[in-house]
Amino acid sequence: MTLSSQDFSLKNSASGANLCRHLTQASHAFPEQLAVAVQRASGSFFSTKTLSYQELNFAELNRQSDKLAYGLNAYGITRGMKAVLMVTPSLDFFTLTFALFKAGIVPILVDPGMGVKNLKQCFIESKPDAFIGIPKAHLARKLFGWGKESVKSLITVGGVSINGKSCWGGVTLAELQQHTSDEPYDMAWLEDDEMAAILFTSGSTGTPKGVVYSHKMFEAQITALRHDYDIEPGERDLATFPLFSLFGPALGMASIIPEMDASKPITANPDYLFAAIDKYQCTNMFVNPALIERLGQAGVSESHCHKLPSIKRVISAGAPATIASIKHFSHMLSEEVEVLNSYGATESLPLSKMASEALFDTTSVTDNGGGICVGHAIDGVDIAIIEIDEAPIHNWDNALRLPTGEIGEIVVKGAMVSRSYYQRNSATEQAKIADGDAVRHRMGDLGYLDSDGLLWMCGRKAHRVDASIHVDNQPQRYFSIPCERIFNTHPQVKRSALVGVVVKGDTVPLLCIELDSSLACSRGASLYADLNEIAQQHGQTKGISRFLIHPDFPVDIRHNAKIFREKLAVWAQHQHKE
Questions:
Q1: AMP-dependent synthetase/ligase domain location, by residue (predicted)?
Q2: What are phi and psi of 533, to 5 degrees?
C-alpha cells in the first residue's frame, strides 16, 4: 500500500490533536519501510573505527512506542505529568519520545550545552515529575541537584544494572518494558493549544526559557516542511538535530542519525556523515551553518571533491550561513540542488526561507550594510516590522507596522508561533502580542521588509548600540549585522562584533575585530587607518572610530556562529583606554 502526501496529511477522526497520528498512519501504510537508523562508531582510540547501524521500521517504531507508553503508565507516569528527557540520539530516544507524546506526558527537552547553572534553573522552573536519562545525565542530576524538589520517578536508559535494577534509583528502561501490553495504545488526544512539550531555548542569545509547544504547533511545522519544502513520504533525511529528527517519521521520512555530538556539531567527523548519506542514499539534509562549513571543508579539496548525488534538498537553520561556506559546500551537490536557508527560532520555526542561488545575488547589498536577506515568509506566516521599543505591547494593531524599508523589530504570526513561555510571565508579556484568538511573537531580532516582501535581518535588538554621539546633527543608532558585514569585507578581518562602551559617561560604538589566522595580518596603524576609512564610507558605520583586536571570539558551541557580544562588551570596556 502506498500513501501520497495528500493522504498522509489527513486528520484523524478523533477529536483533539497528537502528532503521533502520523506515525500510526505510516505504520499501517508502509509498515516495513525504514523509519529510523542510528549510526554507531566502535573501536579503540588508536584504531580505525568501525561503523554499524541500528534500524527500526515504521511498524516496529509504532509498536515499541506503544509498549513504552503502557510501561510509563504502569510506573505511574501519566497524562499531564512532565518528564525531563536527557537521552542521546538513539533508537531509545525515538521510542521514548513518541511514547511520551502518545501518553500525553509532557517531555522537557534541554540543550546540555547551555551549562550546569542554566540547566538547574530550567529544572527548577519546569518542575518535572520524572527524569529519564542516560547514566551520565543521572550522575549530573545527583551531583548538581537537578529536579530534586519535584522529581518522583526515575528511569535509566542504558548503562549497567544490578540484578536488573538501576544503579541510579527508580527503574531501567528494560524493567519498564516488562510492564506492557501487546494491544495498540489508545493515544491521548490533546486540545489544539494544550501543552504537549517544553523546549528550552539554548541561551545563546539570553537566559534559556521554556517554550510551551502544543500539537497544533507541531502540526504546523510538519505542514510547512511537507508543503513549503516539498518533503514526501519515502525520503531519507540525514538528521543532525534531535528535534528535527522526530519530524522524519511524522512525515513518512526515515531519520538517519549519524554518530556525532548534536550539541557540538563542529566536532563531527565528516567521514561518518558522508558514510551515512551514501549507505542510505539520503535525499534530505538538515544542518546548521557550523556543519555546512565543516562538511564543505572536508568534502572539497584541490585534489578531490566528495559528491552527494542522492541529496536533493539541504535545509540550514540556527544562524545565518556565510555565502562563502554555502558555495564551498554546494560543490558536493548536484547542479540543480540548492541550500535552503530557514529563518526562525525555538519559539517559531520555520518562518521564511531563502534558496542559495537567490542569496548569492544579495551579496553586494549585504556587504554594503543592507543586512542579511532571509527570504519570503512561508505560506501561512505574516511578518511585520514595528518600532524598536522595550515596553510590552498587549494588543496588536496594524497601525504598529512600519513602512517598507524601515528597520524595526520583527514580529511574526502563524500556526507554528508559540503562545507563551513556561513559568515566565514577564518574558511572555515582553515577547507576545494578543491578536484576536492568535498570538504574535516579537522575535527580538531587528530587520526590514523590502518592496518585494523579502525580509532582511539586521541583528538582535539587544545588540544595537544607541550612541550618545551625533552624526550630521542626528543621534546615531548602530545595528550589529549591517555594521559588521561592512567591516568584514576587509581582507584581513575574519569577523567583527559591534559593542557599546562608555567613555566619560557617553555610550560610543566600538568594533571588536578577529583577524584571519590564515593570513599574515598587520596589526599596526595601516589596519586601523583602513578600518577608519571603511567606517566613513557608509552611513551605517559613520562615527565608528574605535577598534580592538580580539584573539578568538566567544561563540555558542552549537552553531559556532552566534557571537557572545555581551562577553565581548565587558572585555572591550575593560580593555579600552581613552
A1: 52-422
A2: -65, -45
